Amino acid sequence: MNLLNIFLMMSPGENSEGGGIGSFLPLILIVLVFYLFFIRPQMRKTKEQKKFRETLAKGDKIITIGGIHGKILEIKETTVVIEVEGQNRLTIEKSAMAMDRSSHLSEKK
Questions:
Q1: Could you report the per-residue pLDDT of 9-51, keeping only the tens digit for each?
Q2: Which DSSP symbol is given to 94?
Q3: C-beta neighbour count of 61 within 10 angstroms
Q4: pLDDT digits over 72-83, tens only?
Q5: In what order do the strands lie in the sheet with 79-84?
Q6: Among 35, 45, 77, 98, whose Cα sits 20 to 30 Å from the Cα of 51?
Q7: How many Å is the maximal CA-CA distance in the chain?
Q8: Which comes out higher in pLDDT, residue 2 or 100?
Q9: CA angle 103-44-58, nearest 5°?
Q10: How close are the terminal C-alpha atoms of the chain, in Å?
């Protein structure tokens, strides 16, 4: 039996009063699909970004959310000083770092 036939058999008839669990089953399935395909992957991505930001070290090459490539010179509590091309230094928030440049470059090869 396919899923549609099961739903049709569970739906209440014209003379019955309650829908029971059969009326809530489509809602439960929709919530389950949203959790599996949207909420859970986003939670996993957030956890990976937090772990990346906690494991930063001096000398790591990073890419910011804005696309700036740089090398970490100094790590403070909430900010990081990076060196960009031309020996320029930028102070950025830790939350503005997107990824490790070395892993990003190895994925493209």
A1: 665 555 455 567 778 888 999 999 999 999 999 999 999 988 9
A2: G
A3: 16
A4: 999 999 999 999
A5: 88-93, 79-84, 69-75, 61-64, 97-100
A6: 35
A7: 80
A8: 100
A9: 40
A10: 48
